[in-house]
Specification:
Blueprint lengths: L1 H11 L5 E2 L2 H5 L2 H14 L4 H5 L4 H12 L13 H8 L2 H15 L6 H28 L3 H12 L5 H12 L5 E2 L6 H9 L1 E2 L1 H15 L7 E4 L6 E3 L7 E5 L4 E2 H25 L14 H18 L2 E2 L6 H11 L4 H12 L6 H16 L18 H14 L13 H7 L3 E2 L14 H11 L5
Parallel strand pairs: 1-9, 4-6
Antiparallel strand pairs: 2-8, 3-7, 5-6
């Protein structure tokens, strides 16, 4: 990845780059209408929703009960058949929208700008078709095809050895990262005693979103169905932010968490929607989240180090290990879970906590697999983006390309199209600029016991 960043840095130093705003200027009403047509379809296609097991809680509880006895099993995961059928039924409508996009693209100027806009639009069509094909494979219980589609959409991790080295070092006593925090021990202890429930977190999200000027772009809701906080550009309900009803968060984690979700995910989406003509965020946000997760995890880590003394080892480090093992060994769920447990267990971590981590990671690697009992090499690789994306973000910063993180919703292949031809810093600056020290205001209000209303 470092080689890519260096190449992009060289491209961005050229003197003949065009303003990024020109992409909007060459777009035509016909193309935007056709993209809206595709977006109307894609905006209701959420791959995460389609691979979320409807019997997750039941299977988790059964699995954990047996795992406590040393028995690692393979759960039986079931999916929302109606949701999958609805996705497959959109195929004809997608073909019609794709034809309209092709016709509209023919009217774009035969210039670099026109060619790049055409490439971005075609990328979106290909991705929507891949999601529909994946849904069809899950419905037909074809794990082999479904797995291939997931890898085509999300890619495979490329940094497994690096991750293993960090995990090994951590188990031997080395922290993941340390820094001199800006808060005293007493202040950190006070923050640690603060517990935010789902409703308190919802208010914090909205308060931060107002600071960025993006609060009116989507609702923030507490949901009984969500399993983790999620900023969604695409869902069956449209753009939305969801927080699980049973979610709680310590005050020491609140600032890093909200900067991750709102200051990066949500803000990146709004920036790209303002800068590009419908092809990089919103209903047509790419599913490749390497830059998206990379930006958020990098900023979250920075804030975490400012607030706390060190960054702990998180589940983000375990995903590449589990994905790599499951894919290359065509392993069953039980085998990957056992391997991961043996790899990450530590005398310093309670067995119950380790098993909980093993379930969460292994489940996310196998979710969407319609044939859990078959050795197909199926892996759902979306979560490789956490650790690998953070590495990418650091490399972009090191190469002087940190501003590209404001385009967090774009896929890597989209950036590869744009950086060679356009000045990626907008002429008037980014519509919603970052506020690097906003986390201090959050911590100050928490320490004073002030409300986020």
């Amino acid at each position: 990845m470092g080689t890519v960043c260096k190449r992009w840095a060289r491209a961005q130093r050229r003197n003949n780059l065009l303003p990024i705003e020109e992409l909007r200027e060459v777009s035509t009403p016909q193309l935007e209408c056709a993209l809206d047509e595709l977006g109307e379809i894609a905006g209701k296609l959420n791959m995460v929703e389609m691979v979320t097991a409807v019997n997750h809680n039941t299977e988790r509880d059964k699995w954990l009960e047996l795992a406590r006895q040393g028995k690692f099993t393979t759960p039986h995961l079931e999916y929302n058949v109606d949701l999958l059928k609805d996705a497959v039924a959109k195929k004809t409508a997608v073909e019609k929208a794709a034809a309209n996009i092709t016709a509209a693209c023919a009217g774009l100027p035969a210039t670099v700008v026109g060619g790049d806009l055409r490439a971005l639009a075609n990328n979106r069509v290909a991705e929507v078709n891949s999601m529909i094909s994946a849904a069809d494979a899950i419905l037909r219980k074809d794990a082999l095809t479904a797995g291939r589609k997931m890898i085509a959409l999300y890619g495979l991790p490329t940094n497994v050895n690096e991750v293993k080295r960090i995990i090994d070092a951590h188990r031997n006593g080395s922290p993941v990262a340390t820094a001199q925090p800006i808060y005293s021990t007493e202040e950190r202890d006070k923050l640690a005693r603060i517990q935010l429930d789902a409703e308190a977190l919802r208010k914090l999200y909205v308060w931060v979103a107002r600071r960025y000027g993006i609060a009116d772009s989507r609702p923030v809701v507490v949901s009984d169905q969500a399993t983790s906080p999620d900023v969604r550009d695409v869902s069956s309900e449209g753009p939305i932010v969801v927080i699980p009803a049973d979610f709680t968060l310590k005050g020491t984690s609140a600032a890093a968490h909200v900067i991750h979700e709102v200051g990066c995910h949500w803000r990146d989406s709004e920036n790209v929607q303002r800068l590009l003509p419908k092809v990089g965020a919103g209903a047509l946000k790419p599913v490749d989240e390497l830059l998206y997760k990379g930006h958020a995890t990098w900023e979250g880590r920075r804030v975490n180090l400012c607030v706390n003394r060190q960054v702990k080892l998180s589940r983000a480090f375990y995903y590449p290990v589990a994905i790599h093992y499951a894919y290359h060994n065509e392993a069953l769920f039980a085998e990957t879970a056992r391997y991961l447990y043996d790899f990450i267990k530590s005398e310093d971590v309670p067995v119950e906590q380790t098993l909980d981590n093993v379930w969460k990671v292994t489940y996310r690697v196998y979710r969407g697999n319609p044939q859990m009992e078959r050795r197909s090499g199926y892996v759902y690789t979306k979560d490789r983006a956490y650790f690998q994306g953070r590495q990418l973000a650091q490399e972009l910063k090191d190469a002087g390309l940190g501003y590209l993180l404001n385009y967090g919703t774009l896929a890597m292949r989209d950036l590869a199209v744009l950086v060679n031809h356009f000045k990626m810093v907008p002429q008037g600056g980014f519509p919603y600029p970052e506020e690097p020290v906003l986390y201090r205001e959050i911590c100050t209000k928490l320490l004073k016991g002030e409300s986020f209303t």
